[in-house]
Amino acid sequence: xxxxxxxxxxxxxxxxxxxxxxxxxxxxGAFSKTATGPVSYRVVVRDGVPLGYVWHDESGGAxxxxxxxxxxxxxxxAGVSWARGLREQKAAxxxxxxxxxxxxxxxxxxxxxxxxxxxxxxxxxSVAELRALAARxxxxx
Length: 141
Description:
Layout: H1 3-6, H2 12-15, H3 24-27, E1 39-46, E2 49-57, E3 63-67, H4 72-91, H5 96-103, E4 122-124, H6 127-135
Antiparallel strand pairs: 1-2, 1-4, 2-3
């Protein structure tokens, strides 16, 4: 008996489908990632180094994380904790404004993901502008 007899091949479309696919059902507990106008944001830092920005729109329905390009993988990894925190806040009934405020309290997010405590709330024209800011060298925070 060969290995192929013991483990027959599945059709290619079944073998190469990610089990981590995002579906509308899995996004149901998350804030929208799109905002149609200006957004407010806070700078998230760890050990004095900016990792990214946590943002929300003023309507309370959209929020997210934008990593700083120069933070590399550390900024991307921090985003996992911030996204989880935003989902948990939404599940608890908070709108996006309340969620970002609550997560900005000291100790609300794991220290490895940085902190926005003490960071002033800033405004910007759009999430696209915030992404452009995140791509600039860190002196532009």
